[in-house]
Design goal:
Elements: H1 7-14, E1 17-18, E2 24-30, E3 34-35, E4 45-46, E5 49-55, E6 61-66, E7 69-77, E8 80-85, E9 91-96, E10 107-110, E11 115-120, E12 127-134, E13 142-144, H2 147-153, H3 158-163
């Protein structure tokens, strides 16, 4: 049963490794088909990728931005709080989880060029998510955010930005 699974079990059974943004991951799919979607990429990209992504009480997904669309899927464990920062200066917080009556969503889309970061809700033990990216993920399209710059543009989200940055 998933209630008895441990973080170490998940890391071992799924072959997870530390992710540069925080948490643990492993790539589970990379499409063989490629595309060249224009000037927002340097070169060709896979049409899609997928990973397992694990958050634990001592990890978080640091604020970062991708030039591709990303979809999060909740598989196991506790709910996740995600912050999204939009170019027009607005932001929103969403909960990724299975408690639909509490407003959580089992699937959340982050559009390309939207800053994002996430953490377990307080008291959570772990969350196993899936992330699907289209066009496919490439580290060349990934940038980590800096607390001061993000807070300057989104001061209303300063507390959550502070919680989701390392500098």
């Amino acid at each position: 049963m998933s209630e008895n699974i441990t973080i170490d079990d998940l890391i071992t059974k799924l072959g997870l490794q530390p992710h540069p943004e925080g948490g643990y991951y492993t790539e589970t799919f990379r499409a063989f088909e490629t595309c060249n979607p224009g000037n927002r990429y340097l070169g060709v990209r896979s049409t899609g990728t997928a990973i397992y992504y694990l958050l634990t009480p001592d990890t978080f997904s640091g604020m970062h931005i991708l030039t591709s669309n990303e979809i999060f899927h909740h598989y196991l464990g506790d709910a996740v709080e995600q912050l999204q920062l939009f170019d027009d200066g607005t932001h929103k917080q969403v909960e990724i989880g299975k408690d639909l009556l509490a407003g959580q969503k089992p699937q959340v889309v982050v559009p390309k060029n939207v800053w994002q970061g996430a953490r377990l809700k307080p008291g959570g033990k772990y969350a196993l998510l899936g992330c699907t990216v289209a066009p496919g993920f490439d580290f060349a399209d990934f940038s980590m955010g800096k607390r001061a710059a993000l807070t300057a543009k989104w001061p209303a989200a300063a507390d959550m930005i502070a919680a989701l940055t390392r500098d």
